[in-house]
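Hmm, what's this shape?
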Amino acid sequence: MGSIRKRLRRGRAVYFIDYIAATGERIRQTIGEGEAGRRLAREVLAQREAEAQLGIHRLPASQTMRLVEFAEDWLGRLRPRVKPATLESYEDAVAHLLPP
């Protein structure tokens, strides 16, 4: 679900939308100024939400990362920055999420 936001720029109302795309990415998009911008923002947000519901613009399965790959990458990036005991607790927590 998204939202319409209004900001004042040089004394004029500028509308933008904030929503989560089908890819899971948070998107903020400036739409326009004044009353026409507000109406257009409603229309665009409704369209983007419908696209997300239908899965339009979703990444193909070949480009998405599996949980196992993500967890290994995440733990690898954390390894040099956290204490050994912390890393061990993270590895234990991740082990509960992954298949044996």
Summary: The chain is about 45% helix and 25% strand. The two ends are 36 Å apart (CA to CA). Residues 3-54 form one domain. Helices lie at 34-54, 67-78, 84-97.
